[in-house]
Amino acid sequence: MTSVFRLKQGRTPLLISMPHVGTAIPADQQGRYLQRALASEDTDWHLERLYGEIAAELGASLIVPHYSRYLIDLNRPPEDTPMYPGAANTELCPTRFFTGEPLYLEGQEPDLAEKQRRREQYWLPYHRALTAEMNRLKSLYGHALLFDAHSIRSELPWLFEGRLPDLNLGTAEGRSCDPAITAGLGDLLASQGRYTQVVNGRFKGGFITRHYGQPHNGWHAVQMEMCQCCYMSEQPPFDYAPALAAEVQPLMQALLQRMLAWKPAP
Questions:
Q1: pTM above threshold 0.85
Q2: Domain boundaries, the chain
């Protein structure tokens, strides 16, 4: 454990990353933000609770950050290039809420020096740990599987039109993992009728999926962007909904089991 993240190593080739579950904003930075921002409303709420028992049962490793995406977004490239050209994007050090309004007091946005400091102090340690764990898993099992877990409000007009499908699987248009993984997970999603779903729709996978998805290197990555209404209230105080969560958890477990069942071609 570090002040930046917690890593729990498992006993299978699977690593679950949750880069947006952190809520903390350092005391020395809080004065920059609007008061509303200190509640970190765009957090991927409760994902550790949603996936925690599943991860333990399956023997998956788990990496969880401490700090809010409002400080720095661990799922953005370090050079801060847009993940989705032509669409609304949040930056490496976000300056807007998902509703489009500014996060910072006027003139308090981080400058280049502050962005660099945040990269070095918060972004790099998380990614060094991710890289080390992927290498550890590959050395033990011959390949490493990364499931990048996310959640989001189902309707956010600044980011996308209309209502998002409940479950959004992203594999960077099939480039971030073996084609059989994309096909297997996609078939499993399509075979159920409880949740709307799409593969490589609006959310195709962020930096983590694209960077760590290296099938040629034995690293296979997917992203799951789940609408928060599947397991919680989308309105403050963003309460967990155990009955809803109990409905979606078996499907998430089945997806992770399907990933683990995949074997590379001899």
A1: yes
A2: 5-261
